[in-house]
Amino acid sequence: MSQVPTITLTNHTLEKLELLLRAGGYRVRYEKGNFKTGACLLQSSKIVVINKFSNLESKIQSILELFLELELDPQLLDDKQIALLHQIKQTKLQL
Hints:
By secondary structure, the protein is α+β, with helices and mostly antiparallel strands. The chain has one domain. It is 41% helix and 15% strand. It has three helices and three strands; from the N terminus they run αβββαα. It has helices at 11-23, 56-69, 79-90; strands spanning 27-31, 39-42, 47-51. A three-stranded mixed sheet has the order 1-3-2. Strand 2 (39-42) and strand 3 form a beta hairpin. Helix 1 (11-23) packs parallel to helix 2. The longest helix is centred in the middle third of the chain and has 14 residues, at 56-69.
């Protein structure tokens, strides 16, 4: 049985995920909102809005869920970012 990669729930991880979004052409904003999840994606404008009142774990898990839907152009990413994206796509979220 293969080992499923895990993502650590730290501020450093959150920063890496934000940088990955930005490298993919997305803007990241932290705002209060009345959305039910910790983050939402505004499709037409490539803006990710993260609920600033969510805890760290919720912010990271919300962004990870978005990455499962997003198609980032690998040509915009460096090797470390490509590896992180691959790890995210292989990670099973435990919600």
